[in-house]
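Write out the bound-state structure for alpha-D-galactopyranose.
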Amino acid sequence: MAQEIEDVFTLLETAKTLFKSHFKNEPNVAVCAPGRVNLLGEHTDYNDGLVLPMALPLVTVIVGRKTDGPQCRVMTTSEDLKKNSCTEFDCPLEDRESLTPGEPSWANYVKGVLYFYKGTLSPFDAVIVSSVPLGGGLSSSAAIEVATYMFLDQLNGEKKASEVNKKEKALACQQAEHKFANVPCGIMDQFVSFMGEKGNALQIDCRSLEATLIPMAFPDAAIVICNSNVKHTLSGTEYPDRRRQCEEAAKILGKPALRDPTYDELQDKKDKMDTVTFNRAKHVISEIGRVTDGVAALRKADLTEFGRLMVQSHNSLRDDFEVSCKELNELVVIALGTKGVYGSRMTGGGFGGCTVTLVQQSAVNDLIGRIKKEYEGNATFYICSPSSGAKVLSV
Ligand code: GLA
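---
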C-alpha cells in the first residue's frame, strides 16, 4: 500500500540509458544524494539550534561526463520536473557572475552549486533523475544540490574531491539555495544529505556544525512518511518571515540567536514583545529542548517518549510557529487515533508536504488503511529506514 521506492540502481540505469540516447555517448561519472526526513527540531537550524533528521532511501542520481563545451547541458527525466527537459548554459570557466538564476527553475539548484563550487569547473553533459518527490518537504532541492556538488567533484577526480571537507561542501550548497532559489534556508538539509548514515539519525548542532550519529535500530518500529500532496514552496514570504521574527525575538532578548535564551528568560521579557514574536520564540526554545530529550529517549530505546515529543513538536509548529496546515493536522490526528502509533508530526518547512509517523511495525498497514479511508485528500506513503548520505556510484 506504500509507494515502491525505486532503488538507486534502477534510477542509475534510467539515467544511463537516457544519457546514451540523448548525448550519444557513455557517461563515465555517477553519483547520488538523498532527500531527508526530519524527526525532531523543526525551524531550529537557522536559530543555531539542534536538529535530528535522517537521510532517506529516496535519492537524486546524476550521471555524466566532461565535454569540450563551451556549454553545460543538463537533462532531467523526473515526472515532477518537466519530463525529459534539457537545459543548456555556458560553463562559467572564468566569470562565475555570468551564471544567473532563470528558467527552468529546477536548473537553478545546479547553477547555484556551480557558482559556489570550491574547485575548477569544466563543461559537462549530465542527466538527473530523482525519486525524491518535489515540494514534499523531503529536501528534493538539497538532494539535487548535493548530488551536483558530488558530480563536479567526480569530474575533478577523487584526489581533488577530498581537499574540501563535507561541512564546507554543505555550506556551499546552502549558499546556492540562498542565492539561486531565493530561500534563506538553514543548514540541516544539505548537511544530512552529505553526512547521513545507514541505520542512524543525525543530530546536528547547527551552531558548531558538530554532527552526531544516533543509532536507530528498532526492529519492531517503522517510520512512515505520508505525503499530503499539498505542494509547498518555501520561496514565498512565510519562511523568510519566520526567520526574521526569530531574529527579532533574539534581539529583544539580547541574545545572539534563539539557541541561547532559556524559557524563563523569554517569560521575563514577555511584555517587551508582541504575542506573535513571543510564540515564535517559544516554539524554537522548546523545540531545541525536544531534540535533546528525543536523543536521550532514542538512546534508551524509549519510543513512547520519543513519540510524545513528536506530538508536542507538531502542536508547537501548529499553534506557536504557525507553519502547519489543515491537511497536515488532519493526517496527524488520524495517525494519533491509530493503535500502535507512538507519535506523528508535520516535517520540513511546512505549509504542505509530509508528516512523519513513528509506529509499531505491526500497525503500519492499519495506519495506512485508516489514512486512505479518512483523509480528505490523496495521500502517498513511504516506509523508510535511515539511509546513507551522498555517494559515488560505479557507472
Ligand atoms: C526547510 C529548510 C531547512 C529547515 C526546515 C525547517 O527544509 O530548508 O533549513 O529550516 O525547512 O526545519
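---
The mean pLDDT is 94.
The chain has two domains: 8-212+387-392, 218-384.
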